[in-house]
Amino acid sequence: MEIEVVEGDITEQDVDAVVNAANRAMRGGGGVDGAIHRAGGPAVLEDCVRRFPDGLATGDAGWTTAGEMAARWVIHVVGPNFNAGQRDRGLLTSCYRRALEVADELGARTIAFPLVSAGVYGWPLDDAVDAAVETLRGTPTQVELARMVAFGRPTYDLIASRLGQE
Ligand code: ADP
What we know:
It comes from Nocardioides immobilis. Residues 1-166 form the Macro domain. By secondary structure, the chain is of the alpha/beta class. It has a single domain (2-163), classed as Leucine Aminopeptidase, subunit E, domain 1 (3-Layer(aba) Sandwich). The protein is built from five helices and six strands, in the order E-E-H-H-E-E-H-E-H-E-H. It has helices spanning 31-40, 42-51, 89-106, 125-138, 153-163; strands spanning 2-7, 17-22, 61-65, 73-78, 110-113, 145-150. Strands 1-6-5-2-4-3 form a six-stranded mixed beta sheet, with helices on both faces. Helix 1 packs across helix 2 (42-51) and helix 4 (125-138) packs across helix 5 (153-163). The chain is globular and about 40 Å long. The structure holds adenosine-5'-diphosphate (ADP). The site of adenosine-5'-diphosphate (ADP) has 20 residues, from helix 1.
């Protein structure tokens, strides 16, 4: 699997699946979650309600339609809330591993990731990048391209240097 980084908005990525940093309730929220629900329209929330009546566990992943976005699917993951004391790194790496497993079930070949837990949930940025890169590199998958979407230049520079990209 090729791994690349771009700076931009994940809702605008022309890939098979975009990953959402959701929360356990799976009913929308702030940050990238809010942006994905706004861009995808009401079909995303409707599918969340139908497919996840009890929400989703921390570290797990599940899919819905991407509604009006260019992507076909949203793969929702629930990262650990570092600020609330959830500091088990295995829960963070599990999000990336489970997202790729769901992508394989769907037959998605291209997928875009935000930096899970690195926003409101407060996971330290350097380690959030390391956890993402090492898990994407270490997980066997049929996915051909993982695009890490950095929201802002400092995050882009950090991911690019970790990937060994200029
Ligand atoms: P969490 O609650 O898992 O920390 P956030 O949405 O607060 O989720 O932040 C996760 C990451 O997504 C952060 O790096 C944040 O800057 C980034 N982000 C926020 N909006 C977007 C967007 N539209 N596209 C890509 N990344 C985004």
